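Q: I'm teaching a short session on how sequence maps to structure, and I want students to see two examples side by side rather than one. Could you give me a first protein with its sequence written out and its structure tokens following it? Keep the formatting plain so it prints cleanly on a handout.
A: Of course. Example one:
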Amino acid sequence: MIDIDLRSDTVTKPSPAMRQAMAQAEVGDDVYGEDPTVQQLETTAAMLLGKEASLFVPSGTMANQIAILTHTHRGDEIFIHRDSHAYYYEAGAAAMWSGATFNLLTGPDGYFSAEDLAEAVRPANIHHPRPQLVLLENTHNRAGGAAISLDRILSVSQCAHQLGLRVHIDGARLYNASIALNQPVALLAGPADSVSLCLSKGLGAPVGSILAGTRSFVEQARRYRKSLGGGMRQAGILAAAGLVALEEGPALIVEDHRRARKLKVALEAMGFDLVVPEIPTNMLFIRTAVPAEDQILQLKRLGVLATQMGSQLIRLVTHRDLNEAAIERAITIFGSIAP
């Protein structure tokens, strides 16, 4: 029997408040612009993110790909960390839809510096792709859930804008960064031309992401959403859960981080080799002495689900559906297999 699911914060179930809001949501046809609950969500999210407008889309991947489509033309160059979600986990979507090319940069905690960016941008030449977009991820999944500080975001964004590039932040877990850094999401999103925010990760909604930017950006993004099949009809049922997520989710993320720290302290005391970013959030990466898949199978037999991130790397993610008792139980289980 599986007691504890530490695979991802995407496994959460809608809260009672979300289910009630969904059942009572006022709806209309959103493709016609007639769903009042979607409109409320988009207005609320734009305000929270400090942007002029926002768009409700089915997924974080779609949000990122719409941003790429809106900011670039075919053959343009995107500067991105080689471990970023938009490169690593979005099924080559940029190649399929926008025809853009990635210039892969490196750096600790999923971050590359302004100096790295300036060095990577080649001079204008017909042999080179046109440099167009910088894509940052905050928090950074494959960097152990690392939160990227405002100073770093500002530094890279200022460099990008000086070079004539636009900036998009994949802020799927931007509220996790906000909690870890004790800074409003609007401040962290401020330097970027556009930002995405996932409602169905740490915030706990069942479906959906937000893409925010200027009004003209969102107007064009809405057209791309439709062309990608993302136009939804009575989507207020889903938007209602998103509104509740924005209201109740941030306080619960505080608890996610606290429980992740508790789990970290316990695992380190047991002798587990943890990979910890400079500014951690709700993730823990364990470097295993045995193949990660073997350790994951062992944990599953004991009642814990985890995610493989490499041949000898396991990811654990705390979330709103894991209470204090679940974390205590997880600690006990890990104690039984401690190195």
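Q: Perfect. Now a second example for contrast.
A: Example two:
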Amino acid sequence: MATTQDFKNGLVIEYNNDLYTIVQFQHVKPGKGPAFVRTKLKNIKTGRVVENTFNSGVKINVARVERRPHQYLYRDDMGYYFMHLETFEQITVPETMIENHEFLKEGQTVEIVVHADTENVLTVDLPPFVVMEVVYSEPGVKGDTATNTLKPAKIETGATVMVPLFVNTGDKIKVDTRDSSYVERVKA
């Protein structure tokens, strides 16, 4: 058991018979009345974000979760296969539990969040940035760089990312996996 004083971003709590992670919280002490805590909670299973207000000092159940390093191996019709980096145990995870699965590359290291009490896989967290090679992109027109114009580029995993006009086929780019956006061109 914990109280609202123990809130921090990323904490996983049991709320309405489901697991939620705290995305954002704010302690509020109004002039009149008791203090309270405003929170934004993200449902781990559905990904839906809800807002809730807790009275200050209320007791909550904290779920024990572990972040375990795994290496992505391959994918088939059963799901995505990962290997634990310390025990070499392999697990299969369905596509629905992986946010932005189109940025997974064989051999890539990810963190799998596991409920420690039940050993159920909750989510697969990709690294925030990945380096990918552009396999196809329309050539940019010389002199057409005055505006921040973007063009679609297909990367090695098959995903499409909007990139600036100067990015060409064969270039390596850094991609933000949280919002699928181009960050920068990487020097080889």
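Q: What should students look for in example two?
A: Point them to this: The radius of gyration is 21 Å. Also worth mentioning: The chain has three domains: 2-62, 65-125, 129-186.
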